[in-house]
Structure formats: C-alpha cells, structure tokens
Write a structure and sequence with these properties.
Blueprint lengths: L5 E6 L16 E2 L14 E5 L6 H8 L6 H7 L13 E5 L5 E3 L2 E7 L2 E5 L2 E3 L6 E2 L3 E5 L4 E5 L5 E4 L4 E10 L4 E10 L1 E6 L8 E5 L4 E4 L5
Parallel strand pairs: 2-17, 14-16
Antiparallel strand pairs: 1-15, 3-4, 5-13, 6-9, 6-11, 7-8, 7-10, 10-13, 11-12, 12-15, 13-14, 16-17
Helix pairs in contact: 1-2
C-alpha cells in the first residue's frame, strides 16, 4: 500500500519584508538518517565503498571537478586516494557532487504574486517553471501553489515570502536535494515519500532548518 503524503504547516514568524531582504543562518534540526548504502547528512552523504572504488575513480565519475577528490580525502583522513578499504563509509559533501537541475512548477496562483530571479521579474503563469534562486512574494489575499519533481507540493499563502534555494537531483545517490527558505509569513508543504532514504528535503526559516525525510518529520 502506498505510504501517505506528509503534510505540515511552517511559520516564519516575521512580518512581510522587502523582496531583497536577507535571511539569517539558523541552527539545523533533522531526523536521524536511515541506514543505507548512502545516508543523508546535514552537509554530506555517506557512500559505502565498493570493490574498485578509489577517490580518483569516484571523482571522475561523480564529482563536479575531478580535483574535488582532495577535499574528500582530507575530510575522511585518507592517506592514499588510490586505496580505500571495501565497506569504508566515505563522507562526500553535497557541494562536490554532480547534479541535474530540477525546477518547481506553478500549479495555481491568485492575487498579487511577485516572482523574481536576480534582477529579472517573472510573470506568474500556470505551468511555469521556476529554478534555483527564485524569490516569490505573495500580497494580501494572495497565494501560489507549486509542485516539485518528486511529487511534493508547496503552497505559499498571503503576505509570505520564500526563496527556492536548492532544487537538485544528485547523480551519485540518485536522489533529491531540495532546500526552500521561508523568509517571511507561512507555508504549507506536502512531502512525497522519499524514493531513497539518502534524499534531502529541507525547509529553512529564520529560526530553524526542518528536514522532511519521507513521511517523517
């Protein structure tokens, strides 16, 4: 039987601000990672080394830059990048992993919805695709609903603001890496069960970073 979708309401707890207002860093909260060949962490995955794996072959196949193996070598205190014991739990930062960019799709909207990426204003349109770095602000009696590639949904009600931080599909663990920053107001998210436990879906607010993993929060 299909697992139920996870639904939760998040509140930033601040009044609506200007479109360019910054968001402060905040402490992170996350559920314990599940046991798997890769396990989701706050800033890295765990890859269980298999026969034939070396830092060089992993970097060539999966890292953004082959030279990034040096950062992974230092993080894991590995003396020889060509020799890693089979079964070793290798920490790999998310930022060095190759990814496929994904997007959020506008399902519906009403009222005053301002959308901007960098200095460019974007007209709200049903079916429109919004990528990383997009900022959305809703006015009074307004709202917008988005769907994500994995089947999750996100609704921003009136007088709220969100930044689409990370919308990625990591290639090595074949899983999502989403981060949305609720900067003002409220938001409601309905998270699809994660296809793999190493996936990461986080909602950042000015006071916390909440991680949704599958139907658990």
């Amino acid at each position: 039987m299909q697992r139920p979708m996870f639904r939760s309401l998040f509140t930033a707890g601040l009044s609506i601000a200007a479109l360019c207002a910054p968001i402060a860093d905040a402490p992170a909260f996350a559920a314990p990672a599940a046991s798997a060949s890769h396990a989701a962490q706050d800033d890295h995955i765990i890859h269980v080394v298999r026969k034939g794996d070396t830092l060089i072959t992993l970097a060539d196949a999966w890292f953004v830059r082959p030279a990034d193996y040096r950062a992974v070598q230092k993080l894991n205190n590995i003396a020889d990048p060509f020799r890693i014991p089979v079964g070793f739990r290798l920490k790999i930062p998310h930022d060095v992993l190759r990814f496929r960019a994904t997007s959020a799709t506008v399902v519906s909207f009403r009222g005053q919805v301002a959308i901007r990426k960098a200095a460019q204003s974007i007209n709200a349109a049903k079916g429109g695709k919004l990528g990383e770095g997009t900022v959305i602000v809703t006015g009074p009696y307004s709202s917008i609903s988005l769907s994500l590639e994995d089947g999750s949904s996100f609704t921003l009600p009136s007088n709220s603001r969100v930044r689409l931080g990370r919308l990625r599909h990591l290639l090595l663990p074949d899983s999502i890496d989403y981060e949305l920053a609720l900067e003002n107001g409220r938001a409601q998210t309905r998270g699809a069960p994660l296809r793999k436990p190493e996936g990461r879906y986080r909602l950042r607010t000015p006071v916390a970073v909440s991680a949704v993993r599958g139907t658990e929060f």
